[in-house]
């Protein structure tokens, strides 16, 4: 009888393994990547336009495959989102980022780490609690963490979105509205959300030097931000000419290839140290 039981168990496990082997496709790949901790933070500096001083960084996810290739986020974030894996992935990336940056964050209380969070995750139950626990476990101050969220349909319920933003701010976290100017975000909604920062999309940076109406829009956003005590960060700056145009429109901070592309931690750390920040 023991033999029969052993056989039965063997058959059961064999069946399970065969089934899991048969589970293929992109979502199963994501799960394998998550189990193997293959989703890693890269870091792009955010700098003061007038001085070039590095004020913080944005965490941008990369999928590092075993063969050494690096998968960009547009090839896995949408699937992670639609398959419900984005939550686990986001926490994994945040924990790695906190462990990389902990010394830097502790030595520079003004240095800020910005994390991208999808609206659905932001609004989900327990988000703020898990964020608090994760940040506290790394002994990092909530004031040094910026949650970047893109305005999308999920944030249509302005009252609810604003309540979450307000609760985050009560806990000391900062909130940035991402990709402002493209798509969704009307000025009154921007106002109603109560964030700390607006991030102006690369589109405006690309056109500000060639199109006077872009400069006008950027100046309007800057005026609105000043009014609401928000900071403005411009994304995707590639030239000095763009820096000058942004400064004359009143923008104070930015990020872009001009200073650095997103880097893996060791190279980011070198960059920061070479600028005498650490
Ligand atoms: P985003 O949040 O708007 O991030 C800015 C994107 O612009 C990044 O692309 C960055 O590498 C790129 N970029 C920065 N400076 C320049 C520049 O000077 N020139 C050009 N051509 N591009 C520049 P990336 O890293 O491919 O990320 C794409 C998008 O994927 C992000 O857009 C964000 O929406 C999403 N994403 C990335 N990481 C995460 C993550 O951890 N969680 C979530 N939910 N979304 C993420
Ligand atoms: Ca972002
Ligand atoms: Ca953005
Ligand atoms: Ca963008």
How is this structure best described in words?
Residues 23-276 form the EAL domain. Keywords: c-di-GMP, Cell membrane, Hydrolase, Membrane, Signal, Transmembrane, Transmembrane helix. Its EC number is 3.1.4.52. The radius of gyration is 22 Å and the shape is globular. Strands 1-2-4-5-6-7-8-9 form an eight-stranded mixed β-barrel, surrounded by four helices. The longest helix has 22 residues, at 86-107. The protein has twelve helices and nine strands. The protein starts with a helix and ends with a helix. With 278 residues, it is α/β, with parallel strands linked by helices. The protein has helices spanning 2-22, 26-35, 77-82, 86-107, 119-122, 127-137, 158-170, 187-193, 202-207, 212-227, 240-248, 265-274, and strands at residues 39-48, 54-64, 70-71, 112-116, 145-150, 174-180, 197-200, 231-234, 253-254. Bound molecules: ligand C2E and calcium ion (3 copies). One calcium ion binds at residues 179, 201-202, 235.
How are the strands ordered across the major sheet? Answer: 1-2-4-5-6-7-8-9
**Radius of gyration computed on alpha carbons:** 22 Å
Query: What are the segments in which pLDDT stays under 50 over at least 5 consecutive residues?
Result: none
What is the chain-wise order of helices and strands?
Answer: HHEEEHHEHHEHEHEHHEHEH
Class by SSE composition? alpha/beta
Bound molecules: ligand C2E, calcium ion
Oligomer: single chain
> What is the number of E strands?
9
The proportion of residues in beta strands is 15-25%
Helical segment count:
12
Helix content: 40-55%
Give a short account of the largest sheet: 8 strands, mixed, barrel
Mean pLDDT, to the nearest integer, reads 92
First-residue to last-residue Cα separation: 68 Å
What's the overall geometry?
A: globular
